[in-house]
Amino acid sequence: MDKIYYGNSINLSGLYSKVPIKCDHVADYDKTTYWDESGNFEVNSNKLGTTKTDDCITFSSENENDVILWTEGVLATMKLLKRWCK
Questions:
Q1: Beta strands in the chain (DSSP E)
Q2: What is the pLDDT of residues 57-84, one digit of tens each?
Q3: Residue 34 sits in which domain range?
Q4: Residue 40 CB-density burial (10 A; 0-12 exposed, 13-18 middle, 19+ buried)
Q5: What is the pTM of this model?
Q6: Which of 20, 39, 61, 80 has its CA 20 to 30 A from that of 70?
Q7: Nearest to 67 by CA among 22, 3, 7
Q8: Which of 44, 41, 48, 31 minimizes the C-alpha distance to 11?
Q9: Total domains in the fold of the chain
């Protein structure tokens, strides 16, 4: 049975999801890439943790609770920034 990974991302548009995204569909072309049910979000099992690109920060883990904590931290930060920018 294949593994299950969880992840979430943030970019300038905001948080991708308010809950962790479950990725359990293995890509046919690469057995280290896992997709969510919709095929819109991916996790690379070789790059777990925080990854940054020019326009996005993603966090992924085998542990759903880790992603819940990361997501809650992002939401708290966004709330503080919104309040401070008034």
A1: 5-11, 14-15, 21-23, 25-26, 33-35, 42-44, 49-52, 56-61
A2: 999 999 999 999 999 999 999 999 889 8
A3: 5-84
A4: exposed
A5: 0.89
A6: 39
A7: 7
A8: 41
A9: 1
